[in-house]
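User: Can you recover a sequence for this backbone? Please restate the input before giving your answer.

Assistant: Of course. Working from this structure:
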């Protein structure tokens, strides 16, 4: 007789890691299609819509050629966890 395979307990499955891995995979898949100049379809409100490569790049903060957008010149962005701006606002 063959033994039955047992599945891991539900507590042992890290759903957050699975979701993160799927997110990375979908991002890379969409960007690969966009780099090849292919549109992709998705469902919105029960209807199929086509997304152009430019829309895919914009979704991930890239320019229409798929390159990172240049940082605006001026002040450097302040990290969210920087306590200094909050302390300055309290004064």
């Amino acid at each position: 007789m063959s033994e039955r395979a047992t599945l891991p307990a539900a507590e042992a499955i890290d759903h957050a890691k699975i979701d993160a891995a799927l997110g990375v995979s979908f991002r890379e898949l969409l960007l690969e299609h966009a780099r090849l100049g292919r549109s992709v379809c998705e469902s919105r409100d029960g209807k199929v819509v086509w997304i152009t490569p430019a829309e895919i790049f914009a979704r991930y903060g890239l320019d229409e050629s798929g390159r990172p957008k240049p940082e605006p010149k001026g002040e450097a962005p302040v990290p969210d966890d920087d306590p200094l701006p909050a302390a300055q606002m309290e004064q």
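That completes the design. The beta strands are 40-44, 47-51.
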